[in-house]
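Field reference: sequence -> structure
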Amino acid sequence: MNPSLSKKTSSAEHAEGPDLFLKGGNVLNVYSGEFLQANIAVKNGKIVYVGPLEHEVGKGTRVLRLGKKTVVPGYIEPHFHPWDIYNPLSVGEEACKRGTTTVFCDNLIFYMLMGPEGLEGFMDALSKMPIKYYWSCRATPQTPMVEENDLFSARNLRRVLMNPQVQSLGEITRWPELINGNASMAELIALTKGLKKRVDGHTAGAKYDKLNRIAMAGVDSCHESINGQDVLDRLRLGFYVMLRESSLRQDLSLLLKTVAENRVLTNRLMLTTDGSMPAFYQAHGITDHLIRIALEEGMDPVSAYQMVTINPAVYFGLDHKIGGIAPGRDADMVILEGIRNPTPETVISRGRIVSEQGSLVEPFPGVEWERYFPKASFCKRNWVAKKDLFTIPSHQASVRFPVIELINPAITRIRWTDITSRHGLLDFDPSRFSIVAVVSREGTWITVGLLVGFANGIEGLASSYNTAAQILVIGNNPEAMSAAANRVLETKGGIVVFEKGRLCYELPLPIGGIMSDCSLQEIAEKEEAFQLLLAGKGYPYHDPLYTLVFLPNDFLPEVRINYRGIVDIKKNDILWPRRDLV
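Structure field:
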């Protein structure tokens, strides 16, 4: 920039003046790695000028005089699950207030509940919100489904992947199938590459030799590093690495120490909150929280901000549009009191001021939830859960049973236990074991098992919040369990606890049985009440909602309960079968 240039420009190009003019300020240039004093002009949602000149303002121009304030690009969240009890609007509003102007969202639950046509309409409904929602397309569910082959057919997935709002093939949780030569998955990756889109990985548990094969198969990134060696292995094999700090795992400080100690390049590193729970976001923040950790770890500020701006923009091939402050880019910017405080004073998205002093200028436009998640679709069959559903039939005098042992909120182990039978049912001590069941919303099948390490004091808990989109039921009293399950059926979704014959906790989830329609703050308060209730009943871990969401899945070790039955994930063996009810 040449300070000797004229301070005014009156070219015909700017005769009407910009819509927004940021005067002065310390602007982060993520391309050159510099902080520069500059003015910024915005017109029709785009940055039209960055430099020393002062544009002539028009009648409608809003001028922000920044003084010593800092301007950085809008934050980008590269791996977001906008359905963890909250919905895309409630979490989007909170993210926007905290400087996030673009999110790349997992489509899993939406696709499972809507199918390709419904998903396209839903993506369109969100496409003009104050922040940008881009999407990933899951190749498979993360739990077995009756209709899986039809829903996740090549034809349906091709349709979704070709949508311009979809920027990647979603995290591939079934990576063992990939390295074992699954032809349909290989074809899907080839299609994605042909569309110039990314393939997101989920390589938890993969050692170096398997990471080689995953990279060879076309996976571009991973967000599952839990220690420094994981980061180095993935970087050295050409992956983009998303460093995570979430309500489930707080690993970011440790991972950044490895980055600093090994002096590795940071241009292929990004920061993500993954799928964090409402209370975590409410207490700590979203992307601003990640930047603050990076700064506290001593990371160079330019690198810290690049990891949440230009790096993800480059990864998704959208750096011509987002991720930086330069002419022709979308006018997504965050105004900070100073570079050391990443929580913004003002947020500009799509060329408009959308948040000031931590409050939205106006709420996000509403979404007609019933259109996309009709309550009638929660369950199309009239049925009632009876208490004898939550028993385990056995005609042997004694069986060696695969008890599910919870060793943290998400990980399980198999505890083989000899259990006797009485009157054709397993006879066990309810003070030692909880009953756990996954029952289809339609009441057509059920898998029942035993669980330890959860909260043996719970009589009856039912939840429609899980990645199977079915009903998970836990407790030590079949009558209370059936009452809880029936309440979930009655309200078309929610988390319910019954104790001593009465309803003692309820979190309605009217949006698809997965999401609340309340604000993030309201949901966070309900989550905290749930945590306190379960802690009082013996739940020993910090994030019980993760247990509910993950128990039916098919990719985390070691044992899960789902449509197939009780399953050894590593060996892919059914240890105890489901029961078909109709």
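Note: Residues 283 and 362 are 22 Å apart (CA to CA).
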